[in-house]
Write a structure and sequence with these properties.
Keywords: Electron transport, Iron, Iron-sulfur, Metal-binding, Transport. Ferredoxins are iron-sulfur proteins that transfer electrons in a wide variety of metabolic reactions. InterPro entries: 3Fe4S_ferredoxin, 4Fe4S_Fe-S-bd, Fe-S_cluster_ET. It comes from Clostridium gallinarum. The protein is α+β, with helices and mostly antiparallel strands and 63 residues long. It has one domain: 2-Layer Sandwich (Alpha-Beta Plaits). The strands form 2 sheets. The chain has a two-stranded antiparallel ribbon. Strands 2-3 form a two-stranded antiparallel ribbon. A hairpin with a 5-residue loop joins β2 and β3. The protein is globular.
């Protein structure tokens, strides 16, 4: 499973790393980034939760 953050869409709310810190973090520019784009199998549910919770749909998590 792969995770991606569209930095042009991201508003930097910080929700994704609070839900799944194994995959997402806040970058120096204040926007989120997938620090681990290859989602570990034990974090897939949390990564999908982060995707669903993003208020601007900037996250994609897919096979």
């Amino acid at each position: 499973m792969k995770a991606h953050v569209d930095k042009d869409t991201c508003i930097g709310c910080g929700l994704c790393p609070s839900i799944c810190e194994a995959v997402f973090e806040m970058d120096d520019d204040g926007k989120a980034v997938a620090k681990n784009p290859d989602v570990p199998s034990d974090n897939e549910d949390e990564a999908k939760d982060a995707e669903a919770s993003c208020p601007v749909s900037a996250i994609s998590v897919s096979e």
